[in-house]
Amino acid sequence: KSRSKSRHRPKGVNIEIYHPKGVMVWYPYRADLELFGIEIYINKNSVAPEPTSSSEEVVRPVCDICLNTTEVSYGKFILRSENAIIRGRDRVTYRAILKKTNSEPRISCSNEFYVSESRILLGSVTGEAIACNSATSSVPRIGESDRSDVSELRSEIKLLEDILLEVNQECSANQNQTKQLHLVTETPTRYNSAELYEFATNWLTSALPTVNWNRTMVDAFYVVNGGIGIEVATIIDKLKILKMAQGLADQPITDLDTFQTEDFTNEIDMW
What is residue 139's predicted lDDT score, i.e. its pLDDT? Predict the structure, then answer.
């Protein structure tokens, strides 16, 4: 069977490029979505050439980065390639592969784009910091006791988050709680899905710059009664953001569950 494909920029695919090497790709989990894959092509002339006839075999170049997963972490499909190298000004194209339960995989092909130097992150996909001049800089070593302290701190944070989540679930047992927030703002014109996601990211970065919105925000959509709705990766993320937003003037970020939830809608078709 031939697999369905489209030629638009896939929505929701997030690619993080690291220096000196490493690529991480994530996609928000959706109901019935059982697999997410990515094929990344670097400086290739064509990714999905169209056949001249229905019987002609389509020959594609070999993907430079080929990954897929069925595992979901923190509400996302996360793919990592620790040794992949993408440099500034490289030409990149990718094919996103989405498979829902009991259906054929759907393939979306992106348009070609140049990699901007400003979009490359200094570090690694494992979260370790890299010195700017690693060849000449002296990087202090982390002792075993320091590693143990960090590990204990992370375990303590995880435990507190689990406790907070349990308490929140008990308090909201009779409510249909979502991971969605309401932004009291409007776009200058009606945006498509990608434009709205970028607008919301920029707006939130200005409001709460300490939050890594590229990792935290999963989706953005219009709310019927005004404003923009966003979905974050976890309930814990939502609770943290609501707490941080209490210090903002005019309360521009609120819980969408309390904002006429029966009237909101996501007008952007994922498929």
Answer: 42
**pTM of the prediction?**
0.47
Confidence of residue 264 (pLDDT cuts 50, 70, 90): very low
- Which is it for the CA torsion 167, 170, 174, 176, positive or negative? positive
CA distance 244 to 123: 27
| Measured distance CA(234)–CA(93) in Å, rounded | 30
Q: How far apart are CA 206 and CA 201, in angstroms?
A: 9
The DSSP code sequence of 219-254 is: EEEE-TTSSEEEEES-HHHHHHHHHHHTTSTT--EE
Residue pLDDT, tens place only, 54-71: 555 567 789 999 999 999
CATH code reported for the domain at 168-263: 3.30.70
CATH class of the domain defined by 4-122: mainly beta
DSSP 175: S
> Cβ(204)–Cβ(211) under 8 Å?
yes
Q: How buried is residue 186: exposed, middle or buried, by Cβ count under 10 Å (0-12/13-18/19+)?
A: exposed
Give the separation between CA 220 and CA 183, rounded to whole angstroms: 10
CATH 3.30.70 intervals, the chain: 168-263
Q: Taking residues 217-224, report their average pLDDT.
A: 89
Q: Is 68 helix (H, G, I), strand (E, B) or coil?
A: strand
